[in-house]
Design goal:
The radius of gyration is 24 Å and the shape is globular. By secondary structure, the protein is an alpha/beta fold. Helix content is about 20%, strand content about 15%. Helix 1 packs parallel to helix 6 and helix 1 packs parallel to helix 11.
């Protein structure tokens, strides 16, 4: 791409700086494109902004959450399920909790870094079970980009040869901790595979970044950049190219277009001055997170696009999904009275359990994976729980209470399920006709409904987790949730994996984007977040968002080279 003069329009405007936006910016800028990135939140740099080594006693709140940091005062998370001045609404009867991250890099600063590839079957679920829709691409189309992401960012794991859990280009995984080996033995006795986690945390130096030194504080932002974040692995290094301009505090309202229906740029509000600005660009890439990108398109209304830009199909905002989730925690007596020892490791479990069953023999259609938690990490009230809950404990105080905590410390193990939701017609987002945010931008209204598919899947999770604890010689806390309680399913949005709403497809009448994440209606408009994903899969979506963003950026480069864009 030819470098443009400063007074000309940018080659590309990217809205959002998370996984997809960061990857698109890196690939496009390094190819010579003149790129401007708009981020609604402030600057964030792990090397200067992380609180990785702070102790709880460094704060009068002991590190508890704040309105600005809802995962903890010392976490690398500016944002949450509620933001001052930025409401969203829920339709009657709906519960949906929408997490927004307002910082450079978005959720990549505080995610669990579980980096799983979607499998071959995940791209053709309708063919296999008649539900939802197939993707317009298959695993072979995206596999080379998964490989590139592995090599660029780094991920540890083990090659297992499981059909729908594709292997990758892995660094060596860290050794399992003591409590994880107890879990692994129990899972194998029950016929559940328990293998090395696949996390984007370096165990060997890569591309100038050092290996993890096992402080276990990944959620606070890694000062040495041993784990993956968009700012410190993708965006900030790309600034050195001179081709990337970064604007933080830029709250995007809409994408503008010309008489031909081509995107011409983006209108945003400077959150510090309140002034409206317009940045011109030949190509626009929305990567603001799935629902935020849908909101921008719906707010980009005009005589030519009365229902929102790129929405001739009426599917912008439709087919919203989130990962299903539920948790069980229990007491394992064999882990009592543990000898104090150093449980070196990354900020997360070293093992996990991929989906292992055939849905044809079950009463629900899609699978889930199991994450685990436990051990002798940093003590906290929230993890130890109330000492009165432990068998044979009536409470106490002083030395006796402290000794009880020492005896029971490390004896709790928990399991979390993360499963696939089937898209349904009752789950979508739209503009609220009566509510605007502090900048006067109409907000989203959510409609959300789990189906029996998801309820029965979560019931199976609860039963499996309780069986695992008992196989370990332990006892779950609490009773099995009933159907009236939805079997303990987490509310929509709580797992923070919302996908769809601008999905790709071959048919412009039922999809927003083509197989290259290019809008059917506006050929110089692309989306590079979770919105294009046709289905949820039983895997965390970040690795797929990164791979698709790289693939889309390559396509933009080729189209610009040939003069098609």
């Amino acid at each position: 791409m030819a470098r443009q003069r400063q007074q000309d329009a940018y080659d590309v405007c990217i809205v959002g700086s998370g996984a997809g936006g960061g990857m698109a910016a890196k690939v496009l800028a390094e190819a010579g494109a003149r790129v401007v990135m708009l981020e609604a939140g402030p600057m964030w740099d792990n090397t200067t902004d992380s609180a990785m080594f702070k102790w709880a006693y460094d704060s009068p709140r002991r590190g508890a959450s704040t309105p600005e940091r809802q995962f903890g005062e010392f976490g690398a998370n500016l944002g949450g399920w509620s933001l001052k001045g930025e409401p969203y609404t829920e339709a009657p009867g709906t519960t949906f909790d929408w997490f927004r991250s307002r910082m450079l890099g978005g959720r990549t600063n505080h995610w669990g870094r579980i980096s799983l590839r979607f499998g071959p079957d995940d791209f053709r679920r309708r063919t296999l079970d008649g539900l939802g829709d197939d993707w317009p691409i298959g695993y072979d189309d995206i596999a080379p980009y998964y490989d590139r992401v592995d090599r660029l960012i780094g991920v540890f794991g083990s090659n297992e040869g499981i059909h729908n859990q594709p292997d990758g280009i892995f660094q060596p995984p860290p050794r399992p901790r003591c409590w994880e080996l107890v879990v692994q033995r129990a899972s194998r006795r029950l016929g559940i595979p328990c293998i090395a986690s696949r996390l984007s945390i370096l165990t060997r130096p890569l591309n100038g970044r050092p290996a993890c030194h096992y402080c276990g504080q990944c959620n606070r932002g890694c000062t040495v950049n041993a784990n993956f974040t968009s700012p410190n692995v993708l965006i900030l290094p790309t600034l050195a190219s001179g081709n990337l301009t970064l604007r933080t505090g830029a709250m995007v309202r809409e994408v503008t277009h010309d008489r031909r229906g081509l995107a011409t740029g983006v209108v945003f509000i400077d959150t510090e001055t309140g002034r409206e600005e317009h940045v011109r660009a030949r190509v626009v890439v929305l990567a603001a997170s799935a629902c935020e990108s849908a909101r921008i398109l719906l707010n980009s209304r005009s005589a030519m696009f009365p229902d929102g830009l790129a929405n001739s199909s009426g599917t912008v905002g439709k087919y919203l999904t989130d990962t299903t989730g539920t948790d069980v925690i229990g007491f394992v007596p064999s882990l009592m009275d543990g000898i104090p020892h150093n449980e070196d490791g990354v900020g997360g479990a070293h093992l996990y359990m991929p989906w292992w069953l055939d849905n044809a023999s079950l009463d629900f259609p899609r699978g889930y994976h199991i994450e685990m938690w436990g051990g002798r990490g940093m003590p906290s009230y929230g993890f130890m729980g109330n000492i009165h809950e432990f068998p044979g404990q009536e409470g106490g105080y002083g030395i006796a209470l402290k000794n009880d905590y020492r005896r029971y410390y490390g004896s709790l193990v928990g399991f979390s399920g993360r499963g696939e939701m089937v898209p349904n017609a009752h789950t979508y987002c739209e503009l609220d006709p009566d509510t605007v945010d502090q900048w006067g931008i109409p907000v989203l209204r959510f409609h959300f409904k789990w189906s029996d598919h998801e309820y029965l899947q979560v019931k199976h999770m609860q039963e499996t987790f309780r069986a695992l604890l008992r196989e370990m010689g332990g006892e779950p806390f609490g009773v099995m949730p009933s159907a009236d309680d939805g079997y303990g399913i987490a509310p929509g949005g709580r797992i923070i994996h919302e996908l769809g709403v601008t999905r790709m497809g071959d048919d412009p009448a039922s999809s927003v984007l083509n197989a290259r994440c290019q809008a059917h209606d506006v050929k110089n408009l692309f989306i590079a977040d979770g919105g294009p994903l046709v289905s949820q899969a039983d895997k965390n979506p970040t690795w797929t968002i990164l791979a698709l963003a790289w693939r889309t950026a390559d396509y933009i480069i080729e189209q610009r080279r040939t003069g098609a864009l």
